[in-house]
Each structure stands twice: as structure tokens, then as C-alpha cells.
């Protein structure tokens, strides 16, 4: 069965362009989606204190366009197929990551404005807009040093570790507090527990 979901969030790591052995372009990045709800008593949106983390995979022309268009902190809307992937690391510990194979992706215009540039012939980026990035081989995602695939948290020391999944902004408006917490190994569980605290920014002005 195919599960299609739509997620709103912020780009948490720089999109990375890769290439399969069949020369198919693939771009992946981490997405932080902060949960909010409307409080009728306060008459405003409030933070629920939970952040969901996803790995977003884009293919072919979308892969090129994402690398040319998105940066860390950009608010986006993504629709695609949900995939739960299980894998084992070098020590044999089993892990699980939540991924979205994107079918549609764009900027969240509730958070700002954007200027659209039509791609070149057959959907490829025009020569002027084509991204100049080196290609990595596909398969390194599970070992990506920017984040912990088991918990979804950005690792301590990463250049993106201060991205606020609530606002998409870095450090200046409220950094993340606390890195990944290593839980005791549980042979009956595939998940590692993690905890993250994020400062809350008032977004009433944006209408969110």
C-alpha cells in the first residue's frame, strides 16, 4: 500500500545532489516539521513541543531544481510517498528512518514570498540557473554525519545544529537546546529515544 502525505516544515540540512549507477540524479535533505495547534482560550496558535524529522528524497529534474533553489531554514510544503526504512549500522545495531519520496515540493508562501523561474527545455534547469554541484554516489544517506538517522536529530557540532524547526532560523532567534540523548540499548526496540527543546517564536504576524 502506498501512503501519500503532505508535510509542512523547514529545510534542516543543505540539499545534497547524488547520482545512481544508472545516472539518475537524487537529492536528499532533512526536514523539521514542528507541530502546532490553535488554542481557543488564548485565541492563537501554540507550540505542542514536538518536532517530527524526515529525510526527503527528490529525483531527476526535481533533484536538480531543489539543489538550485533551497537552503537551510527555507519553509517548504512537501507531498510524497511515506517510507519507513530499517537498516543496521557497522556495530550491528538496528535503526529506523522515516523518509518521503517527494512528488511535489515548493516554498511555503505563508512564511514569505518567492519568485518562480521556469525550467529549461524538457523540465531541465536552464543553463543560467543550473546548479554547479559535485555529485556523490547514492548510498551514503544512512551514514550522513549531519544527522542521526535513528532519532532524526541534527548531531552536535553540525553546521546545521542550531536550525530552529519552528522558525527555520539559525541561532539568532533561539537555538536548539540539547543534542541527541543516547538511550540505553533495548533489544526489543528499533528506535533510539531523543529529546529536543526548541524556543518558541510568535508567528502571528505571518498568519500561521
Task: Provide the descriptors you would attach to this structure in a database record.
globular, disordered C terminus, mainly beta, Primosome_PriB/ssb, 1 helix, five-stranded mixed barrel, OB fold (Dihydrolipoamide Acetyltransferase, E2P), 208 residues
Task: Describe, in plain words, how this protein is organized in 3D.
- By secondary structure, this protein is mainly beta.
- The chain has one domain (4-206): Beta Barrel (OB fold (Dihydrolipoamide Acetyltransferase, E2P)).
- The protein is 4% helix and 35% strand.
- A five-stranded mixed β-barrel has the order 1-3-4-6-5.
- It is globular.
- The two termini are 33 Å apart.
- Residues 121-131, 139-162 and 171-208 have low confidence and may be disordered.
List the helices and strands and how they pair.
Blueprint: E1 4-11, E2 16-19, E3 25-39, E4 44-59, H1 61-69, E5 75-88, E6 94-107, E7 136-137
Parallel strand pairs: 2-7, 4-6
Antiparallel strand pairs: 1-3, 1-5, 2-3, 3-4, 5-6
Amino acid at each position: 500500500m502506498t501512503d501519500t502525505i503532505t508535510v509542512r516544515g523547514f529545510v534542516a540540512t543543505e540539499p545534497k545532489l547524488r547520482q545512481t549507477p544508472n545516472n539518475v540524479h537524487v537529492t536528499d535533505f532533512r526536514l523539521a516539521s514542528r507541530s502546532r495547534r490553535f488554542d481557543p482560550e488564548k485565541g492563537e496558535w501554540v507550540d505542542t513541543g514536538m518536532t517530527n524529522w524526515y529525510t526527503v528524497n527528490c529525483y531527476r529534474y526535481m533533484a536538480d531544481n531543489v539543489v538550485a533553489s533551497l537552503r537551510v531554514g527555507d519553509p517548504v510544503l512537501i507531498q510524497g510517498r511515506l517510507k519507513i526504512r530499517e537498516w543496521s549500522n557497522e556495530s550491528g545495531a538496528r535503526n529506523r528512518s522515516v523518509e518521503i519520496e517527494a512528488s511535489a515540493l515548493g516554498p511555503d508562501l505563508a512564511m514569505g514570498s518567492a519568485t518562480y523561474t521556469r525550467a529549461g527545455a524538457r523540465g531541465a534547469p536552464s543553463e543560467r540557473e543550473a546548479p554547479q554541484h559535485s555529485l556523490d554516489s547514492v548510498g551514503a544517506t544512512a551514514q550522513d554525519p549531519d544527522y542521526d538517522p535513528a532519532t532524526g536529530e541534527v548531531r552536535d557540532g553540525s553546521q546545521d545544529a542550531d536550525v530552529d524547526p519552528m522558525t527555520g532560523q539559525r541561532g539568532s532567534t533561539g537555538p536548539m537546546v540539547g543534542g541527541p540523548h543516547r538511550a540505553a540499548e533495548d533489544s526489543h526496540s528499533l528506535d533510539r529515544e531523543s529529546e529536543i527543546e526548541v524556543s518558541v517564536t510568535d508567528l502571528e504576524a505571518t498568519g500561521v
